[in-house]
TrEMBL record:
<feature type="active site" description="Nucleophile">
    <location>
        <position position="90"/>
    </location>
</feature>
<keyword id="KW-0479">Metal-binding</keyword>
<keyword id="KW-0328">Glycosyltransferase</keyword>
<feature type="binding site">
    <location>
        <position position="277"/>
    </location>
    <ligand>
        <name>Zn(2+)</name>
    </ligand>
</feature>
<feature type="binding site">
    <location>
        <position position="192"/>
    </location>
    <ligand>
        <name>substrate</name>
    </ligand>
</feature>
<dbReference type="InterPro" id="IPR004804">
    <property type="entry name" value="TgtA"/>
</dbReference>
<comment type="similarity">
    <text>Belongs to the archaeosine tRNA-ribosyltransferase family.</text>
</comment>
<comment type="pathway">
    <text>tRNA modification; archaeosine-tRNA biosynthesis.</text>
</comment>
<feature type="binding site">
    <location>
        <position position="280"/>
    </location>
    <ligand>
        <name>Zn(2+)</name>
    </ligand>
</feature>
<dbReference type="Pfam" id="PF01702">
    <property type="entry name" value="TGT"/>
</dbReference>
<feature type="domain" description="tRNA-guanine(15) transglycosylase-like">
    <location>
        <begin position="13"/>
        <end position="334"/>
    </location>
</feature>
<dbReference type="InterPro" id="IPR002616">
    <property type="entry name" value="tRNA_ribo_trans-like"/>
</dbReference>
<feature type="binding site">
    <location>
        <position position="275"/>
    </location>
    <ligand>
        <name>Zn(2+)</name>
    </ligand>
</feature>
<keyword id="KW-0862">Zinc</keyword>
<dbReference type="InterPro" id="IPR050076">
    <property type="entry name" value="ArchSynthase1/Queuine_TRR"/>
</dbReference>
<keyword id="KW-0808">Transferase</keyword>
<dbReference type="GO" id="GO:0005737">
    <property type="term" value="C:cytoplasm"/>
</dbReference>
Amino acid sequence: MPPIFEITHKDCAGRIGRLETRKGTIETPTIMPVVNPNIQTIKPSELRKFGAEIIITNSYIIFRKPELKDRALSEGLHSLLDFDGPIMTDSGSYQLSVYGQVEVDNARIIRFQQDIGSDIGVPLDIPTPPDVARERAESELEITFSRAKEALGLKKDMLLAAPVQGSTFPDLRERTARELSRLDFDVYPLGAVVPLMESYRYSDLVDVIVASKKGLSPASPVHLFGAGHPMMFSLAVALGCDLFDSASYALYAKEGRYMTVRGTYHVDKLHYLPCSCPVCTSHDADELIKSENREELLAHHNLYVTFAEMREVKQAIKEGSLWELVEQRCRTHPHLLNGLKRALCYSDWIEQFQPAPRSTFFYSGPESALRPEVLRYRKKLKNFELKGRVLIRAHRLDNEDDFDYVLDFKPPFGAYPLELKETYPFNAEVTDEPDHESLTVALQNTLELMELNPEAEFTFVYETEHPLMEKIGRRAKLVVKGETAHS
C-alpha cells in the first residue's frame, strides 16, 4: 500500500508534504479551521477562499444533539457542514478534559465517526494536563494507549489519528510516540498542549514536540492540537509539525481581538489596521470598530492572517530560509524567544534533518550562533588535516604567500579554508561587529581546529579582545590587526 504522506521539500525539521485522504490530497503544513456544528461564524463552504483545504469539527457535539446526529447519519458529515474537502473529527476528548466525563465510550464514538463519513477520526484519548503527578500521567497513558489500539481494531477506510500524550514528561511523550508508531496509525496529534500555549510556556511546548518527534517515524504526519496563532507557526513547523487546528480565529473575533504575526490586539485600541487583507483594505480602524458585522469581519481578518503566515512558512521552506523566519517571529515576544532558545538546545537533533542548503545564512542575533549549520561545521573540523605554517585571519594580508595554508575567520563559524569562502554557510551575511556569543562560538571552533592539528604552526590575526584569546595564545602566535603576520 503506498504511503498516505509524501514529503516533497524540507528545511530544519520542517517539511512540505502531501497527505492523501478519501476526499482528496492536502498540502502540509496547513491549518484546519475548527467548525462548531452549532454556531458557525463563517460558513464552512466559505472557508476555501481563505485557503482552507481541510477542516476539523467535533463528532461528540454532533453525536449528542439528535437533530445533528440524525442528519449526519442520513446525509453524511460533508453534507451536514457543507464542505466538500477532507474533514477531521475530534472524539470528545476536549469535553472530557473540561468536564471530566462524556456520555459515550471509545468504541461507539469511533464507529460514529466512521458512519458519518469522517476522513480522519480520533479515539477518545485522555488529555493529561501539564504538571500532574507522574503516576497520574502514566495511568492515563495506559488508558489512552488501550483506546488507541481498540480504535485500530475498528478501523475501516477512515484515516485514524493516534494522540501522543504524556503531560510534561518528555520521556513519557517519547515512549508513547515510539509505541504508537509501531502500529498502523495514519496521523499523530500531540495532545493536551493548549494549556502550555495559553500560559505562553513555549519552552515546555518545544520539549513536548521534540520528545514526541524523537519517538515517531520521520515520515509520520504530526498534528499539533489547538495551535492556531500565526506567531508560533514557524517555530512549530521547524520542529516538524505538519497540521494545526484552532478555533482562535472565531473565538478571538467574538472577544473583539485582532490577530497579527506579532501578537493580538484588542480592536477597540487600534488606530490603524496593519494589514492588507480584504477586510483591512476596505475598512479603516474606526469603521471596523463600529461595524454591525464586527465579529464576522474580525473572523475573516484572523483567517486571512492565519493562512498568509502559513504560506510565508512554506515559502521559507522552499527557499531554505525557515530558521531565519523562526528567529524573526520568536523575537516578537519574550516567551517565544524562550522557545527559540530551548529549540536551539536541540540543534544536534535538528541537524539530522537539515537538507543541503539553498539560501544564504543570515546572522540575526546571538541565537544564530547556535544554529544547526554551525554545529554541523564543528563536526566537520576533524576532516581538515593541516601541517606546516597556517595563517588565520579575517581580512586579506600582504604576506600571505609566506604560509602553507590561509584560513579565513568568520564568526560564528571560526576558521575555515579560504577556498570555501563563497560556499554555504561561509558566504553568510554577518554583522561587522560580532557579538559576544558569535565570537565565543567561533573561537571555540578555532581552538578545536588547532587541537585537532598538533603538527601545524598557527598564526592568528585578531581584532577583538576576548577571554578565549589567552587559550588561543598558548597554541598560536597572536598578531594584532595592522601588524605584519610573519611566519
